[in-house]
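User: I'm new to structure prediction. If I give you an amino acid sequence, what do you actually give back? Let's try with this one:
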Amino acid sequence: MKHASVLVCLALLVVTAARADVTGPGGKTVDCYCTDKQGGRIELGETICLQVDGRMFMAQCQMSLNVPMWREVQEGCLSARAHQTPAPDSLPQL
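Assistant: Good question. You get back a string of structure tokens that encode the predicted 3D arrangement of the chain. For your 94 residues, that looks like this:
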């Protein structure tokens, strides 16, 4: 029975990829979205910095074969590229 409900959910997602939600039987809405590392909801089209296996990159939440997924859109992240000025070894004496 559990497998049948998964198949029903997957079948509901086989609508157009452009829609962010799907209306299933009985009018129930199935939301399509990605999740971040902490499990937070990220809407389709949003771009965030991901760190996977020591690599950092910008990824966009997209649909692929009617399944939400992360697609790399840029190497590195804006925060990873920010050049930080090193702290001085010693403070000036007064």
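You can read the tokens as a compact description of the fold. Here is one thing that stands out. Helices lie at 2-12, 78-81.
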